[in-house]
Amino acid sequence: MTDSPPLARVRLRADTPSALTAWSDAWVTTSTDGAAGCGVDCYLLSLLGAPAVVRGLQSAFLSHSELSVEPPAGGGIIVRHHWNATYRTRWSRLPSGSLHALLVADPGGAEPGGHRLVLARSEPELPEALFADLLASRGLMALPEWRHWLCLRLLESEGAARLEGPLTALYVTASEADLDALVQTGLRDGAIRFPAP
What's the distance, CA 28 to chain centroid? Predict the structure, then answer.
């Protein structure tokens, strides 16, 4: 059995106008086991706690209020609703009576080749998760041996951005044309190769 990392606190910022600001701080604080964002734009938020508090914070977040995510070790990030995103929400009632809500942004909408959120269990697994997503969502023509190179080049070319927060995540903006050009350049420059027959 592995020890779980301590959960971070999530609370409504005190200077954020909201119907929830009449609540005491204890009532608008809950836990999170994950958040991922770029700057203050949040792409994924996991809330865990008393059902009324989780639903209240979710409502405040979806109404564009800013939330503070504060890890036990100190520091923290401010997160807010991404201005151009639609959020999918899933809930689960836990045996303890707590509610778990997962809010995931779909900033690219439903159009093919839209922006994508890629999550991995750990940093070493990120290239594999990115490669699998690019194959499924973009029809990428590439070999698995190129996944580390591809991940690095997408980050360098700003076709993907590493998201802040306790989760290992990327926000991918590269189009199919961008990916094709990247692979063609890598082949031409000898950075990646087809295996010898």
Answer: 23
Q: Which of 169, 57, 182, 189 is nearest to 115 (CA)?
A: 169
Residue 60's pLDDT is 81
How many angstroms separate the Cα of 60 from the Cα of each of 15, 20, 68, 102?
13, 8, 12, 14
Pick the range with the lowest mean pLDDT from 5-14, 31-40, 53-62. 5-14
Instruction: Indicate the average pLDDT of the chain.
Output: 78
Q: Domain-by-domain residue ranges, the chain?
A: 8-106, 116-189
**What token pair was written down for 107?**
């900033």
Of the candidates 181, 162, 61, 84, the one whose C-alpha atom is nearest the C-alpha of residue 118 is 162
β 99-106/41-49 pair status: antiparallel
pLDDT > 90? residue 29? no
pLDDT at 8 over 60: yes
User: Judging by beta carbons within 10 Å of its beta carbon (0-12, 13-18, 19+), is residue 194 exposed, middle or buried?
Assistant: exposed
User: Could you tell me if residue 140 is left (phi over 0), alpha (psi between -120 and 50 degrees) or otherwise beta?
Assistant: beta
Fill in the amino acid letter for 26.
Answer: A
